[in-house]
């Protein structure tokens, strides 16, 4: 009898792991991957759509095209997971499994933020979906002066560097338009600084200061008042805006909560080193769907996929899963159309300066704004579609490499 692996979600993590598993497992292992549609979106490009330097059509490709032959790709809405019966229910089918990989990502939920939907599309926008990024692009085009506020509603949220990229890109954009002197830019965040890790936070804060961008930390959003054009914190502090760019409350997929396997906000409690679901046998979790304390980023999903393939194969061979994953995350931080920084870190080691990925040679410079890093960011899109989604890697381990990093 064939053995079955079911993968939930064919986004970044689900596509990578399905292909990676297909390469490693013999044919009597049946691999099924399920997603609600056939549209794979390159999500980092949505920031560029907002600033009108990328066309939205280029970001969307057929999922099927990136899923290897020998994998069953099913388009259907997943409605329930039953880990006791080892069964997944979709609108039209039921699937049993020996191993399950959950990679259903996360979603913005602006309805969770008091007052936000009243202002939505009027003076409050986001760039976390393609239609929203297009609306923001149109608004930015007609904006002729005033205060732009980027607000993160609450933690956790997807892509922790995206807000920093947005404020730096906004500085560049309004300079290009020749109206920077008429625009105030402010980042209002629940974090204690610009970023979660102190060294990187200090570097980003210094760059923001140079660009005359204000950062307001420790702001826990209570409500948005679109008519009065301000946001208010739970302590009663108010920040005025003319244009609000919001990263609303972010939740895991509803199906995870409906199945009763979540942590209260839609994420699956996951062992931070094995990536196995804490409460269920035969279930692994990767990407934004986990509750592990690292970035919700595509690079993380890619590193995690290698670890989960290793652990599923270990279990098939009767060996206990290994505690390999170290929270490794790598992110480009775009400063302008033409320059970028890059960071590489894990649960314990914060982003450090140095050369990446090769010591001395780079060609990328960590925690530094360079032209070469920008070319890296552009090249990454090609790498994503042509190498990473296929579940291939570049010879590097999934864990953080210290070579090239400057400690101390
Ligand atoms: C604006 C923006 C910029 C970003 N920039 C970067 C960056 O520069 N670098 C970086 O590394 N990361 C970046 N990211 C984050 C990155 O895109 C995500 O972290 C990554 O895609 C997570 O992969 P995933 O597989 O967990 O989720 P996703 O890729 O979102 O895939 C989840 C899939 O599950 C499917 N699904 C969910 N629920 C169901 C259901 N009930 N039924 C059927 N299908 C379902 C969805 O349709 C989706 O295809 C950015 C994200 C955004 C929004």
Automatic annotation (TrEMBL):
<dbReference type="Pfam" id="PF07992">
    <property type="entry name" value="Pyr_redox_2"/>
</dbReference>
<protein>
    <submittedName>
        <fullName>FAD-dependent pyridine nucleotide-disulphide oxidoreductase</fullName>
    </submittedName>
</protein>
<feature type="domain" description="FAD/NAD(P)-binding">
    <location>
        <begin position="4"/>
        <end position="294"/>
    </location>
</feature>
<dbReference type="GO" id="GO:0016491">
    <property type="term" value="F:oxidoreductase activity"/>
</dbReference>
<dbReference type="InterPro" id="IPR023753">
    <property type="entry name" value="FAD/NAD-binding_dom"/>
</dbReference>
<dbReference type="InterPro" id="IPR036188">
    <property type="entry name" value="FAD/NAD-bd_sf"/>
</dbReference>
<dbReference type="InterPro" id="IPR052541">
    <property type="entry name" value="SQRD"/>
</dbReference>
């Amino acid at each position: 009898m064939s053995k079955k692996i079911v993968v939930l979600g064919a986004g970044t993590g689900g596509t990578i792991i399905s292909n990676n598993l297909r390469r490693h497992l013999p044919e009597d292992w049946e691999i099924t991957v399920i997603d609600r549609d056939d549209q794979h979106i390159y999500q980092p490009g949505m920031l560029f759509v907002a600033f009108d330097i990328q066309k939205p059509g280029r970001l969307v490709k057929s999922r099927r095209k990136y899923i290897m032959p020998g994998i069953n790709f099913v388009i259907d809405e997943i409605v329930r997971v039953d880990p006791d019966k080892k069964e997944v229910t979709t609108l039209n089918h039921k699937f049993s499994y020996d191993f399950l990989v959950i990679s259903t990502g996360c979603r913005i939920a602006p309805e969770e933020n008091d007052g936000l939907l009243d202002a939505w599309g009027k003076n409050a926008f986001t760039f976390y979906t393609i239609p929203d990024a297009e609306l923001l692009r149109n608004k930015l085009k007609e904006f002729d002066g005033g205060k732009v506020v980027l607000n993160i509603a609450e933690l956790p949220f997807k892509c922790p560097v995206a807000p920093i990229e947005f404020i730096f890109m906004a500085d560049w954009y309004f300079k290009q338009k020749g109206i920077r002197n008429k625009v105030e830019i402010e980042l209002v965040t629940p974090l204690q600084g610009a970023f979660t890790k102190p060294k990187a936070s200090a570097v980003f804060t210094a760059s923001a200061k140079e660009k005359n961008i204000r950062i307001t930390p420790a702001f826990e959003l209570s409500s948005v008042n679109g008519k009065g054009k301000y946001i208010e914190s739970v302590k009663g502090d108010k920040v005025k805006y003319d244009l609000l760019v919001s990263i609303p409350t972010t939740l895991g997929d509803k199906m995870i909560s409906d199945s009763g396997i979540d942590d209260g906000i839609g994420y699956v409690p996951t062992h931070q080193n094995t990536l196995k679901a804490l409460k269920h046998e035969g279930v692994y979790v990767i990407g934004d769907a986990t509750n592990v304390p690292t970035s919700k980023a595509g690079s993380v999903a890619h590193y995690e996929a290698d670890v989960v393939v290793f652990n599923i194969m270990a279990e098939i061979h009767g060996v206990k899963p290994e505690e390999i994953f170290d929270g490794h995350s790598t992110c480009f931080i775009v400063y302008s159309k033409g320059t970028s920084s890059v960071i590489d870190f894990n649960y314990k080691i914060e982003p450090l300066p140095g050369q990446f990925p090769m010591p001395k040679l780079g060609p990328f410079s960590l925690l530094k704004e360079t032209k070469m890093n920008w070319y890296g960011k552009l090249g990454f899109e090609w790498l994503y579609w042509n190498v990473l989604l296929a579940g291939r890697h570049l010879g590097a381990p999934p864990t953080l490499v210290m070579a090239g990093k400057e400690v101390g």
